[in-house]
Model the fold of this input.
Amino acid sequence: MYKIIIPMVLALTSIIFLGSGISGFVVADNTGAITKPYNWGVLLSLLFLIASMLSFFLLNRKR
Done:
């Protein structure tokens, strides 16, 4: 059961971080520069997405 739940939780976390990253991209400061939360949100999203894929393959491989 945990072989499916762990990658799903990581993928959902990735989606949440991606949403925060996109909202950070939309909200720019008054100089017109893209704010930092955008960059960190997208980077964390990619990190959790890679982690979910790795955990899925490592937990479901044949012994």
In short: Residues 2-26 form the longest helix (25 residues). Residues 2-60 form one domain. The chain is about 80% helix and 0% strand. The mean pLDDT is 76.
